[in-house]
Structures
1.
Amino acid sequence: MTRRVLITGGAGFVGSHLCDHYLSEGAEVVALDNEVTGRAQNLAHLAENPRFRFVRADVVAGIPDDVGHVDLILHMASLASPPFYKRFQVETLEVGSLGTQRCLELAAKTGARVVFASTSEVYGDPSVSPQPESYWGNVNPVGPRSMYDESKRYGEALLTAFRATRGVNTGIVRIFNTYGPRMRWDDGRVVTSFLVQVIKGEPLTLHGSGQQTRSFCYIADLVDGITRFAATDHAGPVNLGNPDNEMTIRALGERVCQIFGVPESFGPPLPRQDENDPQQRRPDTTLAKTLLDWVPKTSLEFGLRATHAYLKGELGS
Ligand code: UDP
């Protein structure tokens, strides 16, 4: 029997790539999205596919009945970039809490597995590095990122409770910084900002010292990790991110300039994005490697080139 997969946030960056993956495997896919940050254009190429359906709806308001039976639910809907989640604070809290509950209730009825897109932000501004799943984090519950961090922490707690008390097959993935085609050019994240600045011939914007670190994972690797994990019955949490390319934001800027052959040019330093901006971030992916035989394979250069080409097309330049 054909599997039916529901992907909330299906018109978003990660969600739309997951739609492609499951369709390529022969599954039926329902993408649910309220298009606050997701974009129907990410799914336009699937319009003629008879196994694909797009439902414009907000998961917080409830999953429409006519979505029907599903075997797997991937709850990817969220405001994922700091400028967006700071703009839509209550909506961010709702989609991680109520939205997650809607998915779990449907799963309790249908027997579906639910995979929840959690985040490296559950570790807050971490005091250990790299971050293993066993680290409880350093999150400010009333800080400038709390709407995102706490919505995801609450979502994790909700999955844990539904598994314990209602026997739902739940799985938590903690996604670290990921980039690639279909990111919005205006989402304000560092990879898109730097690439758009290179395309427009503008200086790169560094927030704070530029000494804060991130590790960057390419979308194809993330999709590979999520789908491997979704195929298990494991509860997680499991970290998915690139453990091998932690770098400072300044070093990322330098690398971007070098790859695209433009002179290194940073604008005047901007204030730190916020006082809880994590100063270091690198996933410990030992569990993903052991459990899923998963390691990211895409080089930063390949990934940046693919993303640059996509953004150039988006900007019409
Ligand atoms: N950042 C920057 N310049 C930009 C955009 C972001 O220096 O144009 C910094 C930001 O302050 C943060 C890091 O890059 O320290 C990563 O930011 P991003 O928004 O990509 O993701 P986060 O990991 O904070 O969710």
2.
Amino acid sequence: MKRIFYKNVHYKTVTIATRGEGVSRTSLLVIYTGGTLGMVFDEKERHLVPFDFEQILEKIPELNEFEFSLTVISFNQLIDSANVTPAHWVALATLIEENYHRFDGFVIIHGTDTMAHSASALSFLLENLNKPVIFTGAQLPIGAVRTDARENLISALEIASARKDGRPMVTEVCIVFNNKLLRGCRAKKVESAQFAAFDSANYPPLAECGTRIVFNPLVIKPYQPFSDLRVYKKMDTRVAILRLFPGIDENTVRAILQIPDLQGLVLETYGSGNAPTRSWFIQALQEGIERGLHVLNVSQCIGGTVLQGRYETSKALSQIGVIGGADITTEAAITKMMYLLANVESHAEVAKALGKSIRGEMT
Ligand code: ASP
């Protein structure tokens, strides 16, 4: 075990002895950030504490049997994913960049609460990705009797190592959870108690894990032999989300729109993108857009798509320049905005990119 340092963040590296050690053609890097999966019950303290990844073989002895080699980088300060910030996303993107050519695939162990945000963010930060980056976590800690941690982690490792004709089966950022492989920038946490914590209502699973893992190559981003990974390291947090509800007050809407230096707003509307037609509401939005604010219309529904202009209640939004977000999730919308605002210079280019798919995040 050795300690390595990346820009003042401490990591601990552990190499796990598997059957593939030394002879394996596939090598995986696991990045352990925290979350429920890695918790164990501390008998003395009587509460859950993060476990040391060096003990992983005690918890999942099956790892010994794997044909691939396994290296684990563990954040020294393990976090509940409620504490994730864009700085963590940049740290993860940097770790993947620095290790991209040494490993065939990457597995990120992450808390479930903001996993969909992190997977979306990484999809945007890693352009031209040609290797699997698989997020996973668990609803129950690895030490619990009925834990889902074992199954989720094993599925994530198998998927990250899956290859066909010498190429990875998966070339995108994904989430594997409860036997489903979902596109990261399409996924959403939908459940806090049942094992099926994630869903992607607007995009089919990329694979299903039963007695064997069945991939659906038709919906997986194709491997691109001549494209080089490009990693972005900036996110702009001058963004906000405004979720509508009947009775929302003018002062509330104006307070958000008048946040100093606000650059992007995700507007969570009803159904297929509908919003109140009251003049103060439309006018407040219009003033923001005229000042240069990007407003992206995203539905509060889990499934379906925004169709601005379908109803009278969304026509005015199109007319004042609100951008239709089609079937994007809020998690993908807000991280896409942070990414575009930080990395694309021109206002017109940001607006154009918000209205179309850049990583498969919308249809
Ligand atoms: N609060 C935890 C987290 O997101 C929940 C989990 O891991 O499932 O880190």
3.
Amino acid sequence: MSSYIPVIGLEVHAELLTKSKVFCTCSAEFGGSQNSRCCPVCSGMPGTLPVINQTAVEYAVRAGFAMGSDINKFSVFDRKNYFYPDLPKAYQISQLNLPLCINGSVPIEYEEDGVKKTKNIRINRIHLEEDAGKLVHDDLNGVSLADYNRCGVPLIEIVTEPDMSSAAEAKAFVEKVALLLQYAGVCDCRMEQGSIRADVNVSIMKPTDTEYGTRAEMKNLNSIKAIGRAIDFEIYRQGKLLDMGKKVVQETRRFDDNRGETKAMRSKENAHDYRYFPEPDILQVNFTDEQLDAIKASLPEMPDARTERYISSFGLSENDARILVGSKILSDFFDDSVKAYDNPRSVCNFINGELMRRINLGEIALEALPFDAQQFAKLVQMADTEKVSKNDAKDIFREMSEKGGDPEEIARAKGLLITNDTGKALAVIDEVLAANEKAVAQYKSGDAKVFGFIMGQCTKALKGVCTPKAIKEELEKKLASL
Ligand code: ADP
Ligand code: MG
Ligand code: ZN
């Protein structure tokens, strides 16, 4: 196959985490028995009037800020007409020429051929619209059933410029968008429940071409893996067509997850096919500078800023920083722990070690940890300052993971607190030496190897009383004085 440059642009749809739908007061929650979350407005009854959900507008603006966009202070809604039973009004309320957000940019980090790379993906626009219902096709009985619970759930569409050129870049982009939306607190990002879906546009061109090639669009991909596979297949399919002297036709294709192939679905529709016109029933959105500033100021510190802070102020490795920042809950937990015990590296090691291990084993969940950051930090500090041994700290952590609790109390109850009580240590060492007269004599006659054995006996008897270092010092002193 000749070498072509792939050109990829994405349209990512994300459902917003509002309590109610975007134009009525029905619950926007996922699930529910079929058509139990519907009213005359979202089921498209004639004569009903939509009222816009202010939180949905604010969330869309938050998403815009999270992706470095400019916000249009003046924004309008439009009707996008199409006839398909998942949309009972026969039009979708969306935004065409004056969307809420324009001109953003999302930095991505990804690995290709074992090399770490970064790139900026430009965002053309982010607009607010309503989701459609769900159709269940019952082939056995030859009917299709409509569930309108999802109809009217607020949705943002994030449209990129065609800036990506591989499956790895597109996958990294969707992951980054999900992370930004998670930090902005506007989407639960559960791809398996469809709260993030992507339409993928792919074309290819020769290195000498000055214009983009004809693209195909794959709609509604709902996993990172499917996005990658659909892109790879499309690049391959289009390359084969061009190699044979054939043309790529502009069309919408469906990705078949089982076969790993895309299939022609329909010829691509253009904006004029939708007969867009201004939505007459919804007021235009007008923001003041103060309102926009307040929304911007309410965003938390975002992932790239955190990664940078962890590396430059805390001295963490880039890899460690990215693991922590990869989840807002985890990163917040880390920050709270460091506030309680100012040793970022040590806290990070314990999180990326023991904490992640228990999470990966499914024993604890990040969303519902049975201990708080202060208790966690205290345990890390106790291990660092040798109030408990490193090994015992793991035991204590296991108990905290099972039942919660204060690490110091657990350590005391289990007799694991190291008191470094030298008086007690000396008495125990005396006992051990008395019980091992033969070994002591051997040691005194110059057999240094036997020290390890004596030390082992003392450590066992002094577990939880002294650190090994303190025991060794006392033991050496004692033996020298004999
Ligand atoms: P439409 O409104 O017809 O869907 P847009 O111009 O809004 O078209 O583009 C939709 C998506 O397709 C955008 O993400 C854009 O980056 C991408 N895109 C546009 N042209 C190409 C192309 N030649 N190859 C790949 N992607 C493209
Ligand atoms: Mg489109
Ligand atoms: Zn409703």
